[in-house]
Amino acid sequence: MNPAVAPLVLTLGEPAGVGPEIVAAAWKALRADQTAFAVIGDAALLRLQGVAVAEVGAPGDARDLFGSALPVIHRPLPAPVLVGLPDPANASAVADGIEEAVSFALSGEASGVVTAPIAKAPMYASGFRFPGHTEFIAELTADAPYAGTRGPVMMLTAQNLRACLVTIHVALDQVPELVTAERVARTARVVHESLKRDFAIGRPRLAMAALNPHAGEGGALGLQERDILIPVAEQLRAEGIDITDPRPADTLFHDEARATYDAAICMYHDQALIPVKTLDFWGGVNVSLGLPIIRTSPDHGTGFDIAGKGVARPDSLIAAIRLASEMAAARAAR
């Protein structure tokens, strides 16, 4: 643990899901290497996982306690938890935990935020008006100073692949109209800046995935490459950003191709997530780029069908914690 970097803060996510299980398992896995973090949530849920818990007031208290007990900023839930059955009565507490974690990161008391999965249906039933974590955190940090191109941009990463999304959760038939020059250019700028700031890559290399098969085949299979993506790539290179012209996505993600770039700019959801999950199904991480704070999360959902059975794998959360710690160290070193 780098003493110059504050501990991370984790949110417990949907209390009826796998969040408590994987947070407890991650603490067991990481306490030996002193990747310190504190958890915001109901301490009783973590005690049920059979781990030693110490209630604390702030993430900084994790420094001395982390090796022997899991530091928890205790926030009791208003309603009982039935494993596998989310209750909208607890949704406001889930949102409050995210907001408090972000405030710790903005103040510098935490070096970053790692969020366990939430369930959108009970959140929406309680009046939550954001599509998900990313958009909520973007609003919570909107007034904070930030030197760079604002995101958020979603990055999915596993092993040596970083795949960044121009469009996220939209129907496939809406993607072509959303792949605009402005949106592609902003995404590339955010990724370029984040690779330098958060990943300590001095000269980032970006690869642009084409929207259409065969990169449009000169216009025979689509015009977006010719009319939008190639001009955007030329504009970005004129700004000093190292980015390729759009390349066919079916040749962009094999081992040799991945060695030629530091991040891929992908046009739609499955174009990015399929290669990430094929490369490492259990260990992928979701990263929000272009924000004043560091935020990562596991690349999976609440797992209601397996919650409470002791079979939930913590691999993705462990990877998310480690990546957030590395990103925090990179920011601190600048």
What is the H-and-E element order? Answer: EHEHEHEHEHHEEHHEHEHEHEEH
Strand order across the largest sheet: 3-4-2-1-5-12-11-6-7-10-8-9
By helix and strand content, what is the structural category? alpha/beta
Beta-strand percentage?
A: 5-15%
Please state the overall shape, judged from the principal axes of the Cα atoms. Answer: globular
CATH topology of the largest domain: Isopropylmalate Dehydrogenase
**Distance between the ends:** 18 Å
CATH architecture label of the largest domain: 3-Layer(aba) Sandwich
* Beta-strand segment tally: 12
Number of helices: 12
3D structure, described in words:
With 334 residues, the protein is an alpha/beta fold. The protein has two domains: 1-146 and 293-334, Isopropylmalate Dehydrogenase (3-Layer(aba) Sandwich), CATH 3.40.718.10; 149-290, Isopropylmalate Dehydrogenase (3-Layer(aba) Sandwich), CATH 3.40.718.10. 37% of the residues lie in helices and 15% in strands. It has twelve helices and twelve strands. It has helices spanning 19-30, 43-47, 62-65, 91-107, 120-125, 133-140, 175-178, 181-199, 224-238, 255-258, 269-279, 315-333, and strands at residues 8-11, 37-41, 53-55, 70-74, 113-115, 153-158, 161-165, 205-208, 242-243, 263-266, 285-289, 295-298. Strands 3-4-2-1-5-12-11-6-7-10-8-9 form a twelve-stranded mixed sheet, sandwiched between helices. Strand 8 (205-208), helix 9 (224-238) and strand 9 form a beta-alpha-beta unit. Helix 1 (19-30) packs across helix 12 (315-333) and helix 8 crosses helix 9. The longest helix is centred in the middle third of the chain and has 19 residues, at 181-199. The protein is globular, with a radius of gyration of 20 Å. The chain starts with 7 loop residues before the first strand and ends with a helix. The mean pLDDT is 96.
